[in-house]
Write a structure and sequence with these properties.
Layout lengths: L1 H6 L25 H9 L5 H10 L8 H13 L3 H6 L21 H15 L5 H16 L7 H20 L1
Length: 171
């Protein structure tokens, strides 16, 4: 309920708790960049929390790249591309972490896709974008099978590539 309330969602009353309703089991991360991004998309931006998180990101080790990408996308969605670009690293550095199939399902492919999405929205003409697209091509060719891994990885990767190609050819 706390998450739903913070996002401004409406709780349906009289429905009872279904097998898939796990709202009581989920715990919101209070300062989640993803939640801040969702709030912007729901036309309920939390400017104060976004600014506080941006200030934390002055320390390059303070937040993960994934969090930086979601915060960047939130600022881009608000039309503040300069701030969106300022929270991203200037160059993508691949994570040394391997794919994790539990918890948050970390994926280096998804991480690179999030970076490409955030960078494309913040600065469509950034010279890093073509380099990232080439890296995606190398990774795809390296798998030898035409996909990146899981369905989620494929969705993020192909969405990022498509948006980047569209943005760079239109701008």
């Amino acid at each position: 309920d706390k998450i739903l309330n913070r996002l401004g969602a409406i709780k349906v009353t009289g429905q009872g708790v279904g097998r898939l309703d796990r709202r009581q089991q989920n715990v919101e991360i209070e300062d989640s960049a993803y939640v801040l991004f969702l709030k912007v998309l729901a036309d309920r931006p939390d400017a104060e929390s976004m600014a506080a998180m941006k200030d934390q990101m002055k320390d390059p080790r303070a937040r993960s790249l994934t969090e930086r990408c979601y915060l960047s996308q939130a600022y881009s969605a608000l039309g503040d591309r300069a701030t969106a670009l300022s929270v991203l690293p200037a160059h993508y550095l691949p994570s040394k972490l391997a794919r994790v199939m539990n918890g948050d399902w970390f994926s280096p492919n998804r991480e690179m896709a999030l970076y490409l999405l955030a960078l494309t929205e913040a600065d469509p003409q950034n010279p890093e974008i073509p380099k990232l697209i080439i890296e995606f091509g190398k990774t795809l060719k390296g798998t030898g099978r035409g996909w990146y891994g899981t369905t989620q990885e494929d969705a993020f990767c192909f969405m990022a590539i498509g948006k980047a190609l569209k943005a760079t050819t239109q701008a």
